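Annex B. Sample input.
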Amino acid sequence: MSNKSRICVAEDHTILRAGICSLLASNALLEVVDQVGDGLELIESVKKHCPDLVIMDISMPRMRGLEAIQQIKARYPEIKILVLTMHDTEEYIQAALQAGALGYILKDSTHEELMLAISTVLKGKTYLSPDVSGKVLQGYLEGKQQKNQTNTAWDTLTNREREILKLIAEGGKNKEIADVLHMSVKTVETHRTNLMKKLDAHSATELTVYAMERGLVNNRGLVNNRGLVNNNGSARLLV
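Annex B, continued. Sample output.
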């Protein structure tokens, strides 16, 4: 039997995903058993291959990375998860760790740091890149974890509402979202209404801009049947 650690890579950018897999393939102790481009594919891949380690982003199509982490850890607690992302805010870091990730590093990390993170997480230990650990420490020192702090509109959203917000921002219609999440159209409509109330939004475009500001979708220009969201985060309707 092979002594290689089995790894699944989840990243929606094809070129970056191929680069990660190429780096891993250069290590004789690692084996990439699958690579996927979105959260739902990741869940199915984990079920099929049962890898030792998942290396994943937290901004992916169809299912949020944080939701995927929670589902994987709930079903397969022995699988280790290393987050490799561009998001460096303390909010995302804490959320990923609370969801069950053991490691969190940024996409501008070196090859050596990635390998160190993989080795550490495979041993069941926590690994945070220096910039990330600094964010966590700063958040702690500033008292951001106090329970009596005022909740923002974002804090009031449930995991399901955040998932639906992401799908709306990606241009999904109610029927399409219902199909993806295996729920009724009426339930999706209710969630959409609740999102607009909680976020004080009056259109799908406003929801999209909010989702981009929160990093749920890539801030690089989204085009759908409702309008265009520019790279600077502003929005204009197509007429």
